[in-house]
Amino acid sequence: LFERKQLQIECIGSAYKIGDFQVKIGAVTHNSSNRGLITEISYSSANNNKDTYGVMIEFIQSVFGWTNTNEMITNLVRRKQ
To answer: 49: closest CA among 26, 31, 73, 30?
Structure first.
């Protein structure tokens, strides 16, 4: 029989607080080789999801300069429901 090696994936990065937002950015590695970049954005001041959605889109567009953010987030939300 074959022995399986345990999969080890790490994410090492930094967290930043920008106003009401917390942004975490990290490098994803697998077997000590870079595999990607992960970004997590949290917003803490909204009372409901409808408020958060618009604010998150504006924040992502202003910080990262992505112009198709609305389409990207809309597709992600559709897949999660």
So the answer is: 73
- How would you class 57 by CB atoms within 10 Å of its CB: exposed for 0-12, middle for 13-18, buried for 19 or more? middle
pTM exceeds 0.90 for this model: no
b/e map 13-49, b = 16+ CB within 10 Å = eeeeeeeebebeebeeeeeeeeeeeeeeeeeeeeeee
Q: Report d(CA 22, CA 7) in Å as an integer.
A: 29
d(CA 19, CA 27): 24
pLDDT digit string, tens, across residues 62-78: 877 776 666 666 665 55
